[in-house]
Amino acid sequence: MSLLNCRLLTRSVAVPARSLLAWQMHSTKASFVLTKNCLTRLSRHNDHTYGHNHHPNMLLHQLSARRSLSTTSAAPQAEPQKSGKSSNSESESETAEDSSAAKESTNHAVVSTFDLFSIGVGPSSSHTVGPMRAGKIFVQDLVEHKVLAKVASIKVDLYGSLALTGIGHGTPNATLMGLEGELPETVPTETILTRVQAMHDTNTITLNGVHRVRFNPDKDMTLHYYESLPQHPNGMRFTVFDGNGDMLATNEYFSIGGGFVVNEKTQLAHGENVFYRDNNRVAVSSATSSDAESAQMAERTQQDLVTAALPFRTGKDLVDLCQREGLSIAEVVFLNELQWRSREEVIDSAFRIWGVMDDSIRRGCLSTERKLPGRLNVHRRAPNLYQNLMRGIYGSSEKGSLSSPQSPALSDGMGSSAEKLASAADAAAAASRENGAFSASSLLETSLTSAQRSELTGVFKRRQRARRPVLPQLDYLSVYAIAVNEENAAGGRVVTAPTNGAAGVIPAVLKYHLEFLSEDPSRDILEFLFTSAAIGMLYKRGASISAAEMGCQGEVGVACSMSAAAFAAVMGGTPAQVENAAEIGMEHNLGLTCDPVDGLVQIPCIERNALGAVKAVTAAQLALQGDGSHRVSLDQVIETMRQTGHDMMSKYKETSQGGLAVNVPVC
Length: 667
Description:
The protein is of the alpha+beta class. Helices cover 51% and strands 8% of the residues. The chain is globular.
């Protein structure tokens, strides 16, 4: 079938060529809709010719006293043109320069903090949040183009990693919820399973919550296990048909990690940092269709055209910018956020993000559920760990322990005679042999004299059970991280930080700081989130935050690096020390594979978040002991991570075809 592709802002709608005229005649607004949705493309053409700084939003936010953004104004010519050829040559030269300047002004690492940190549902940002958003975008496009009412059936294709680990990650269910008009931020998680079961029972789905069409989940949703779309491992395709079986529209989306959704045309048209999230910021149910459509397009256009007030491309750029302007990394990010939102909105949004993070810790610690979903029968550990901490059993002293290294307590409660000590040691050795616990130490005891035994017994007292470690820092970091990721594994609401699989690291480190170290919690929450966001932006631009591309180094590794930088910042570190902390956090996560057992975000994901949090604090402490100068830079580590992910075999990149996934029995 011949297709005419109409490439739009972030998607492509394909219409059968033979029915194109009829489709246009169906609505007198058809040409207007197409033109309207190509607004960004036209605007970028104008930027190509006239320069980005002529857009009013950019002029409003220039900091003229501190920096100059590139402009392209026509300079008066000193001499009249001698020939038309010369004029054309100079015109082409100016156009090329304008194009270069326009590209440079948008080819930076800056995205919104609230796109890196978004509220969603578990267990995966790339396999749950992203597909849900993609489904919502697709049905919203059908509404905008006035074709939803003509749809009679729909088919869904999931490719690559979305298929291989999709069942364990909840990808099919999330995709179907998106097609029914739900968003990760607001979907009632407790209704998902019953709604999906209803689709199986009735062989129908209600697109955008208003239009019921034929859909058999077992036949019309295909998981392509051994096939990937060329643009990205996490690819999906939606196709709708009319009552005659003719295709009405189709589109391919790619979930690139952290809930970001793009397609090939978007990437080619807008550079490396274009994303599509929060597409339905205006509720259709609370406004007329035209009002919602207009508001949505206005937001799309604004986000696409805005230039960062303080752009940076690399870690070096970021540190140099901070030093030149006398700003912290958090302040740079905050000023950039003012391009999208007011000061009050930025602050309120940041506290809302932390509120969801903190609530996910609370729910994980207080959960009454014993097991996580899935065939692995993994037990929740956060509730018991939290109860142990609150019970106060991790005291600073323990009965029978040494009072101090200089003057050990030698009393063992058995008297002072060497004979009693010797007989007791002999009895213990005999009991050990009878119980089969005949260790190397018991072999040595058989050759010792009574005097030697008396010298040892009072110091190295035998314990009936292992002593509980007195390491509250590790305990609290671990329980917070585990709590979040157990909630994520159960499909609860968490914050992508920067992904769902790594959602526990940043909340754990931040909560630990607030509870034990912070003197100004409100300020520290903002500084922590904005600093970590800046580091996340660098990884998103320089490599990827998708485990399907990078392995787990792109998720827990990045979260560890972000947390290390943020912890160093709230502890008073300089921008150079913060950059150093971020580098250390990633350097020792390089090569980390993503091999979830049975495709579930449980083993090894949950424990890995706990270790990521501990490692982040350690990395920050190391960086704060120096002056910020170091041999390996953050930019070098990010590039190394990118290369490592590129060279990593696909079976170690969120496919469950290697590593622990094939060596740990499911049953």
